[in-house]
Amino acid sequence: MQTGNLPPGVPSTRESLGYKIIRWAKDNIVQPDGDNAGEPWVFTQEQLRFVLWFYAINPDGSWKYSAATLRRAKGWGKTPLLAALAIVEFLGPCRFSHWDAFGLPVGKPVPLPVVQIGATALDQTEQTMDMIRGMLSESPAEATYGLEIGKMVIQFKTGRPGSIKPKATAGRTNEGNRPTFCLMDECHHWVGSNGGPDFFQVLKRNIEKTTKAGSRWVSTTNAYNPNEDSVAQIIHESEMVSKGYWLYDCIEGSISLEDIRDEDAVRSALIAAYGDAFWADVHGLTRTILYDRTTPDSTYCRFYFNQIAESSDGWMSKGEWDACFDEDDPIMPGDQIAVGFDGSIRGDATGLVGVRLRDAKLFVLGVWERPEKAPVDWEVDVLAVEAAVAETFRRYRVEWAYCDPPYWQENIGRWSIEHGDDRVFEFWTNKPTRMTQAVERFRTAAMVGDLKHGGDYRLTRHVLNAVTRETPQGLLIQKDSPRSKRKIDLAVCAVLALEARADAIADGRLKIRRSRVVGF
Predict the structure, then answer these.
(1) Residue 184: CB partners within 8 Å, gap ≥ 6?
(2) H/E element, 99
(3) What's the rounded Cα separation, in Å, for the pair 131 and 33?
(4) Residue 236, CA atoms < 13 Å, CB-side half-sphere
(5) Strands 181-184, 216-221: pairing kind
(6) Rounded CA gap, 264 and 282, in Å?
(7) Does the global pTM surpass 0.70?
(8) What is the DSSP pairing of strand 154-156 with strand 163-168?
(9) Which residues partner with 353 through β-bridges?
(10) Sign of CA dihedral 289, 292, 293, 294
(11) What is the DSSP string of 388-445?
(12) Rounded to whole angstroms, how far apart are CA atoms 27 and 24?
């Protein structure tokens, strides 16, 4: 299943330098390993398609895409493809020169090629450099271009400027370089703790100095862990991808966590994820996924199905949440309830959740989320929220309401005046001591069956989107990343509502209707 922004089909011969680059690669570099080692290098069909689109050009000869990312399953062949592109950018006809007599684009080599293999540590570049050396050693290119193939540097024997060399994080020492092409392999490992995001910005800035001359970068990645804020995630969530300026080629195997023990479903998803990577051991991977319990299922989803799976740090599993489902005894007008409110203006959702006092049954009173194709200046309809709050107090006996104040402090103050300052209270969710206790009480109630819900898909989605973050005070819930579109606001509302219910009951506000017993 293609989930990137790669267009269907392939560009025409008039729209890409890739066709001549593919022929050049076959004539000049060799297969580095395997049964066909030493034979001319041949791209797979999926690799060919990526190359053709990466080297697609506009009518004026400029690049259609200013950068590219290839996201594929582990073992698909990302590193060999990167190695081939590094050699093409070092020696091949990879810049637009002119149009020939037939209206086809003609490429030319880079005059001073500076190809960098970026990584957060030098040892992470070894696999790519080994692959490059294998493709060039005893190849036609080695003799034709007079190459000196060293362990850490590929350069010209004549002393002509130009090289392929690794580059690792080293703070500001990398500023000022002028690469003509940069490879960034395994970007899901480029995280804050190893300086990955900062290093990415440095490499990107260096490339941008010479973009007019055609300089670009390519990254590869497996599906990332959305809790790590890696460079892979930063790229995927960038507007440069969503607006089509950066090419993003991704194929996922379609499978749910519920089906990950189904042999046919696993095999089918692996076949889809690995495509024409004929060397992938689908049978062995199927066996491992089915019977090896030492690895979390979410890891299998990321590395082998290429899915950005639900994090293993998820707050609530689907099975745990489903166990709280109760369709009996629906919420009725006049019921005593407590309320949780979490508000936003533009980015996050705004939500209102109620919970019945007598049985802790949760229900959604309102949610306002940014529509998929909303204009840039979209904002929450404040009047609609105000109307929903007023209707809640009119329809139900609201005994206690906890409201998160940011952006809504004035509104909350007015609700307190209108409905009673002994019923409407502020609850600052950014104060970890109180919030971690509320989160823990909610999860405990769910685990022991002390809360219920009616199956509202919106509440379910937000609860299952939430992941945990450890603080010195305990666990908090949050989105899987700050820029994530996977909202959790109704989950926060539900936590506040259950906390409000507990305080209302502790204050003696629960009125239990007792049946009359008549004796004879």
Answers:
(1) 118, 119, 190, 200, 203, 217, 218, 219, 220, 231
(2) strand 95-99
(3) 9
(4) 26
(5) parallel
(6) 12
(7) no
(8) antiparallel
(9) 340, 364
(10) negative
(11) HHHHHHHHSEEEEEEEE-TTTHHHHHHHHHHH-TTTEEE--TT-HHHHHHHHHHHHHH
(12) 5
Q: Which of 414, 420, 429, 413 has the alpha carbon at shortest distance from 399?
A: 420
Burial call 401-424: b when 16+ CB within 10 Å, e when fewer: bbbbbeebeebbeebbeebeeebb
44-57 burial string, b = 16+ CB within 10 Å, else e? bebbbbbbbbbbbb
Instruction: Output the CA–CA distances (angstroms, integers) from residue 422 to 387, 407, 496, in the order listed.
Output: 21, 22, 16
CA separation for the pair 95, 426 (Å, rounded): 61
DSSP 338: E
| Stretch (H or E) spanning 143 | helix 140-145
**Please, which residues bridge with residue 230 across strands?**
none
**Residue whose token pair is 């995630």:** 233
pLDDT in tens, the chain (520 residues): 777 888 889 999 999 999 999 999 999 999 998 888 999 999 999 999 999 999 999 999 999 999 999 999 999 999 999 999 999 999 999 999 999 999 999 999 999 999 999 988 888 889 999 999 999 999 999 999 999 999 899 999 999 999 999 988 655 556 667 899 999 989 998 987 788 899 999 999 999 999 999 999 999 999 988 767 789 999 998 999 999 999 999 999 998 877 888 999 999 999 999 999 999 999 999 999 999 877 778 889 999 999 986 555 678 888 889 999 999 999 999 999 999 999 998 878 999 999 999 999 999 999 999 887 778 888 999 999 999 999 999 999 999 999 999 999 999 999 999 999 999 999 999 988 899 999 999 999 999 999 999 999 999 989 988 988 878 788 899 987 776 777 899 999 999 999 999 999 999 999 765 444 444 4
Long-range residue pairs from 140-149, CB within 8 A, at least 24 positions apart, any chain = 140/27, 140/28, 140/29, 140/30, 141/28, 141/29, 141/87, 141/91, 144/28, 145/91
AA identity, residue 316 = M
Helix (H, G, I), strand (E, B) or coil at 31: coil
Measured CA to CA, the distance from residue 367 to residue 323 in angstroms comes to 24
DSSP state, 349? -
Cα(360)–Cα(448) distance, integer angstroms: 12
Strands 163-168 and 361-368: unpaired
Angle made by CA atoms 212, 118, 93, in degrees to the nearest 5? 45
Type of residue numbered 102: F
Backbone angles phi, psi at 350, to 5 degrees: -115, 135
Contact 416, 410 (CB under 8 A): no
Asked if residue 349 lies in contact with residue 370, where contact means CB atoms within 8 angstroms, the answer is yes
